[in-house]
Amino acid sequence: MAFPNGGLITETNRQYYAGSQGFQVETLAQTSFTFTFDTNLALGSPLSWDPAVPEYALNNFKLYQSSDGGIEFLEVITEYNLIGNTIEFPELAPIPYGDVIVCQLKMIDGGAYGDRDAFGNIVEENYGSYAYIKLNDIINNFEVAYVGAGKLIPSIKRTDIIFHAKRGLQEFSYDTLKSIKSQELTIPPSLSLAIPQDYVNYVKMSWIDAQGVKHIIYPTTLTSNPTQTPTQDNLGVPIQSNFDDNIEGTSITDERWRTQNNGIIANNLNFVQALNGGYYYGYGNGYGYYGERYGLDPQYANVNGSFTINEREGKFSFSSDLVGSLIILEYISDGLAYELDTKVPKLAEEAMYAHILHSIIATRSGQPEYLVQRLKKESFAKLRNAKIRLSNIKIEEITQVMRGKSKWIKH
Amino acid sequence: MAINVDTVYKTVLLILNKEQRGYMTPQEFNSIGTQVQLEIFEKYFEDLNQDLRIPQTDIDYSDRVENLDEKIAIFKTFGEAVPATSGSLRYFNLPSQDAYGNFVLFYRLGSVVYTDVYGRQVELDRLQRNEYYNIQTSALTASTKAFPTYLYENQKIFVSPSTIIDSIGVNYIRKPLNVIWGFNVGGRGQYIYDANVYNGAVSPPTGSIDFELHVSEQTKVITRVLLYAGVVINDPQIIQIAAQQVQAEQINSKS
User: Fold this and answer.
1) pLDDT, tens only, B177-202
2) What is the dihedral of CA A42, A47, A50, A51, to 10 degrees?
3) I need a surface site. Which of A193, A363, B32, B113 has the fewest CB within 10 A?
């Protein structure tokens, strides 16, 4: 059994897997208990030890006490203070000798103490965290290893390192780091969904069928969402409001697209639609009689629907056949939206140091060009290395994929 | 380990009195001794800057940067900055008392450290006013509790972000104490050295204060005191010899 002993792991197995840490009071009475989770303990408010306080739901842990040596636990709902990661009970109400105090971080199954109702996902958020290094640590490490007398950077302001580190994380997020952001959403009757708060670009949009299988939804170029829709007078001149700005109307293009029948565009007509002449409006070369459509353009010929990005409204707009569909939106952020995001996969740690070093040296005056070029190459090579590592290429998996490739490709 | 003030005074007198050149009173010595101590002390920081730019050897006792740091370390101390407000202005005053409970005179500011509620210590980045405005306006570099910054103006520390309202530690260099060769007057009017610890609370004060400089500075202190003593007794020969000695020391330490 391995215990934290100065290595990079700072939590015990129990802290990591079960999200709990306990103490048995070994002095006459004890008022102060310091917990050492990687996750900082948080109370919704200073008084939210009390379940009657609304912010109680915002606590990221529950505290339990056992007076029978750890057989039966009850939640502690008496007053205590949280200072950092230390829980302090009032001097007049200490935890008596022999009692066990357990802190349970909230987890999906509710934990193993009391009523087993410490529901949340704090523990699960910490799972897999060993694969990452925090940006703060990157900056601290960089200062230790690369800055100082006799080194390439004799002195530098910390803010400069922070800037280059954060810019590096943004750039890495766009094309090197794994896209770990995704949202499961249902398309409402309005056929539009707000762009996520930390969205930078989409990776993939898919709808989910009854079996849970993803079907990719492609963006369409058949229509676009206008960014301005000024209302016009009879002469076509935009009309202004009392505040001297153009009056904006709703987009007719959007409306037509919303109400269109996707089957017409996709040439996916059923018998009735075909009889009704829908096929005359098909795209590509789909004109002609039923069963005689030639030269179908494959980019429009799929049944998965399509989407556009409506910059005017800051939303994704979907084709009408996707109404009510369950979709998964996979997208990339820049890694700086939340404190929790500011982490770098360890597989890209060295690339990040190289990026910061090159950026700093390249922006300094009086640096020899050969040095800048050397660092540039080094930075590029390490970035490429990180990208390959993060691509997660495994020989067995490639072999498995290639096994199916001996089949004839049918057109 | 400090340099004994009595040793310095008596050595200086010994050299001065040779061939009946002159005499230096304790009061003169105390003033000159304090002056010399500050002169040598201030020079440490210039020397450190120069030495840091030169590759050093890591063999024991020969690393000039380490040797110099050993001399400066005598005066290194730390304490808690005191939060204060003036109207809507929030700042921290420099500590007048260090962590050991000594009342000390502040000499030079070192690193400023913030300790958060989890006990993690973060060094604050020192900014100039012009940088400060630019840095705060950039979303990427604006000060946060994880990366705080400060301005040092008017002997006050202005910490950013303003949510940091306490737990600011200051590492600094204190000023060396004034040198005092304390004495009692003997039966024949002669000065008798008072080796007791200085006590300024009584009148007249009693005891002595040694040179606080590193003990390795003893010869430097003596030659420099002699240099000034030559001026006091108006003896060009003493001045010349002492100046030569000082120059030789400097050349050796910079080569």
Assistant:
1) 999 999 999 888 889 999 999 998 89
2) -60
3) A363
**Taking all residues of chain A, what is their mean pLDDT, rounded to a whole number?**
87
Is the pLDDT assigned to residue A83 strictly greater than 70?
Answer: yes
Interface test with B, best of A39, A159, A171, A336 (most B CBs within 10 A): A159
- As a whole number, mean pLDDT of residues A85-114 equals 94
Average pLDDT over residues B76-104: 92
A341 and B CB contact within 8 Å = no
**For residues A363-382, average pLDDT:** 96
**Residues of B (148-167) whose Cβ lies below 8 Å from A:** 149
Count how many Cα atoms sit within 13 Å of the Cα of residue A33 in the half-sphere of its side chain.
28
- The nearest CA of chain A is from the CA of B113 a distance in Å of 13
Tell me the count of A-B CB pairs closer than 8 A. Answer: 40
ipTM of the complex: 0.79
Beta bridge partners of B171: B78
Contacts of A167 in chain B (CB under 8 A): 140
Measured CA to CA, the distance from residue A381 to residue A363 in angstroms comes to 20
The Cα–Cα gap between B188 and A402 comes to 110
Quick check: A158 and B147 CB within 8 A?
yes
Closest CA to A351 of A320, A323, A378: A378
- Domain map (residue ranges) of chain B: 5-71+177-254, 77-174
Angle subtended at Cα A237 by Cα A234 and Cα A242, rounded to the nearest 5 degrees: 105
Q: Does residue A160 carry a pLDDT above 70?
A: yes
